[in-house]
Design a protein that fits this description.
There is one protein chain. This protein is mostly helical. Helix content is 68%, strand content 0%. The chain has 2 helices and no strands.
């Protein structure tokens, strides 16, 4: 019946540090892109949108809806 004695304060702090580290990792993945990467993504999205619009056919006799 003799188990290890655990200091709850230290345990809580250790758990909080682990959760903060998980959040930091998520933030690094979400927001940690360089300006060049952001610019490249933006340019690719614009090009894809432009290519898609080029393939559209206009309907004769219809106004813009």
């Amino acid at each position: 019946m003799s188990g290890d004695i655990v200091n709850l304060r230290q345990f809580r702090k250790q758990k909080a540090r682990g959760e903060k580290e998980k959040q930091a990792e998520q933030n690094r993945l979400s927001y940690g892109r360089t300006k060049a990467e952001k610019t490249l993504t933006h340019a690719r999205n614009e090009k894809a949108e432009k290519t898609l619009d080029q393939g559209r056919r206009e309907r004769p006799g219809k106004d813009d809806e």
